[in-house]
Amino acid sequence: MIFKSKPSFKSLLILFTAIIFLGCQATKDQEDDTVDISKSEIRQTAEGYQLFVNDEPFYIQGAGLEFGSIPKLAAHGANSFRTWRTDNGQRSGKEVLDDALKYGLKVTMGIDVGRERLGFDYDDEAAVKAQLERIRGEVMELKDHPALIIWGIGNELNHHSENPKVWDAVNEISKMIHEVDPNHLTTTSLAGMNKEYVDLIKERAPDLDVLSVQMYAEVEILPEQIKKSGWEGPMMVTEWGATGYWEVGNTEWGAPLENNSSVKADFYRSRFRKAIESQKKQVIGSYVFLWGQKQERTPTWFGMFMPDGRETESIDAMHYIWNGEWPDNRTPRINDFKLESQVAENNIKLKSGKSYQAMVDVVDPDGDPLTYRWEIMKESTTNATGGDAEEVPEVIEGLIKSEPGSDVTFSAPMEEGAYRLFIYVDDNNEHTAHANIPFFVNK
């Protein structure tokens, strides 16, 4: 038999004090968690609509980022980024938000919403309800994260869409979000901007806090489009940047003519000044596209990085926009690029197996030594749209005949068809200039 003595007054006092301390600590922890949540709201001020985060004005200077470098984005002066989904297949939404918090960035978190062009049926009530409940779970998981500021409901849901019920679903998602998460704003991103879709948003999705649009060369006419559409509320531009492959000229065989990296960088600067910065009374900020790299008609069309992580001149341009000064080391600039003394617009046709020459004129602002890489790739045959995944075309090996330099001699491929000649110029400081010329090979 074990005899237990009665607890002493001193031990009871110690126990009571510990319970009080732990209770107070738990309450404090709960209060700290509440304080950490970012409270976002739109206010109408003398300067127009403004985003406030935790009662401080917050003008979004950001980029679209899914797999790109968060540390580099912060280092170049951005304050935010957007995603397209809560889980990109490589990192969870929480991991992305944790990284954003670590580097002092705020996030417009994308929510994947079914697209009609990919087979989602908005007449299917059960599918729409299941989607709403799936999204509720995603929102509940991430809603209290301190890096979160805005929920992006779907992406370009108007693209190849005919059923207006999609906007009813967007409105229901927005209402659900506001019920479970009163601290953050909601938006949806349109492909382009016109009165038809703005009217649908006004009529069917009035619960949204902000309207977002995505425009490339057409972003230059955004001020006129805002007036024509009749939209008077707050806006974001959630994708903008290089001229799209659907907005440029084509060769006789249908190959779109891509601008070189320096022309693109100049467009980034001019388009921001003309179409985004000039509209601050309504536009609360923007996300440039794309802070990363992807294949879309070519491996270089929209990505601001090369596949190996080297930076292009478009990042120099955004650094200047975000900081008011250039980065310490800048990317080489392309002045001229020709194949057999011809430019891409000349519909260049070559004979299979014959030798040809190309040249590029490049200058480095810092006088860095340059390294040249030439590559011949088959023309993309993918007809994907809306940023859907594309296969990277085949690189044809063994055609470059001279040592890499500003001039090159190469053999035309033996197989008849459409190709591109790419030039990449590295400055040995993690920067690359690039350009390409499409050509067609005949037997």
TrEMBL record:
The keyword Transport does not apply. Keywords: Signal. GO terms for molecular function: hydrolase activity, hydrolyzing O-glycosyl compounds. GO terms for biological process: carbohydrate metabolic process. Residues 1-26 form the signal peptide. It holds the Pfam family Glyco_hydro_2_C. Residues 103-281 form the Glycoside hydrolase family 2 catalytic domain. This is Beta-galactosidase.
